[in-house]
Amino acid sequence: MIWRAVDDDCVRTDGYVDFEKALGKENNGATTFGTTTFPATHGGEARLYVGSGDGLTIWLNGQLVFDKQVHRSAEPDEDAVDVDLREGENSVLVKISRCIGPNGLYFRIAGDSS
């Protein structure tokens, strides 16, 4: 497995992370992992809004919080996931199981005062 940084130009203002732009079209139809960390001013309830091209699995702070294996194109807010954030740094790992087409996902967090 090779990890590569995703440049800022691969993340759109609407929350779409464009892995095709980051990795190239030859990686469409591949399983892709992405990871990041983000701060939360206060711990507590929050909601992840996600949209994926095909299957999506999400781990938050090492815990599986979402797993949906479907065949679809990525759209904003296709799914909502209630989670508990911890105060300070939180880590997220996503796995996109893409069969064909552009590789990417929508991802945003609502709640907390992060």
Could you provide a short overview of the structure?
This protein is mostly beta strands.
Describe the structure.
- The protein is built from one helix and eight strands.
- The strands form two sheets. Strands 1-8-3-6 form a four-stranded antiparallel beta sheet.
- The protein has one domain (9-111): Jelly Rolls (Sandwich).
- The chain has 114 residues and is mainly beta.
- The longest helix has 5 residues, at 19-23.
Keywords for this structure?
114 residues; mainly beta; Jelly Rolls; four-stranded antiparallel beta sheet; 1 helix; 52% strand; globular
Q: In the CATH hierarchy, what is the class? A: Mainly Beta
Total discrete domains? 1
Strand order of the largest sheet: 1-8-3-6
Largest sheet: 4 strands, antiparallel
CATH superfamily: Galactose-binding domain-like
Q: What is the total tally of β strands?
A: 8
Question: How many helix segments?
Answer: 1
Order of helices and strands: EHEEEEEEE
Computed structural class: mainly beta
- Uncertain segments are none
Q: Give the distance, in angstroms, between the N- and C-terminal Cα atoms.
A: 31 Å
What is the fold-level CATH name, i.e. the topology? Jelly Rolls
What percentage of residues falls in helices of 4 or more residues? under 10%
Report the β-strand fraction as a percent range: over 45%
Overall mean pLDDT: 86
Radius of gyration: 14 Å
C-alpha geometry: globular
Task: Label the CATH architecture.
Answer: Sandwich
Q: What's the arrangement of secondary structure elements?
A:
Elements: E1 16-18, H1 19-23, E2 31-40, E3 44-52, E4 55-60, E5 63-68, E6 79-85, E7 88-97, E8 104-111
Antiparallel strand pairs: 1-8, 2-7, 3-6, 3-8, 4-5, 4-7
